[in-house]
Amino acid sequence: MQEKIKEISSRIHELRELSEISVEEIAKYLNIPVETYQQYDTGETDIPASILFEIAQFLKVDMTLLLTGEEPRMHIFTVTRKDKGPTVERRKAYQYQNLGPNFIHKKAETFLVEVEAGSTDAENSMNSHPGQEFDFVLEGTLKVRIHDNEIVLEEGDSIYFDSSYGHAMEALGDKPAKFLAMII
Q: To 10 degrees, the CA torsion angle through 49, 52, 53, 54?
């Protein structure tokens, strides 16, 4: 996984430099400390999926380019076979699989997300990004924290929310939680 992090960071670094965007400019846009961004830029630290999404928007590229190094080409439809979408780990407890990587000019990013059972990461890792998010629970039980609210979702439940508010997910019980996430 560390090699994949380095590859993604290298692509971002190169795009940033080609666009003549400073580390300070992008850190300010992301509303994070320059030191944190520098760790992303050098591949020292894994980049959360929400930050990748924001970086792609800032650099005016598709997130697929950051994840795979290839531009999406499909404009009528695209098929992603089971377990074949590009993946990115978001911290230790989260794994994202991109479900529509090859469709050009997407209006939303779709992911299959798995959150490890028993992860306590959610307490300290509130996350926010521009736009809205829709999550549909496929397996397990998911506790969602948004702003000052805690909502428990079971298999078949869904939530739609303003993702500019801090939010985090946690799998409850002894099984991982899987959900379909759509970032709009």
A: 130
**pLDDT tens, 144-163?**
999 889 999 999 999 999 98
**Tokens for 161?**
């929310």
Distance of alpha carbon 61 from the chain centroid: 15
Between CA 4 and CA 10 the distance in angstroms is 10
Q: Nearest 5 degrees, angle CA 111-CA 93-CA 116?
A: 85
Using an 8 Å Cβ cutoff, are 146 and 165 in contact?
A: yes
- Tokens matching residue 112: 């299959």
Distances (CA, A) of 47 to 64, 82, 95, 182: 14, 24, 12, 18
pLDDT digits (tens, 9 = 90+) for 76-111: 888 989 988 888 765 667 788 889 888 888 888 899
**Beta bridge partner(s), residue 74:** 103
pTM here? Answer: 0.76
Q: Which helix (H) or strand (E) holds 41?
A: helix 34-42
Task: Reduce the DSSP state of residue 39 to 3 states and report it.
Answer: helix
Looking up tokens 């969602």 gives 144
Residue 47 — very low, low, confident or very high, per pLDDT cuts 50/70/90?
confident
* Gyration radius of the chain over CA positions: 16
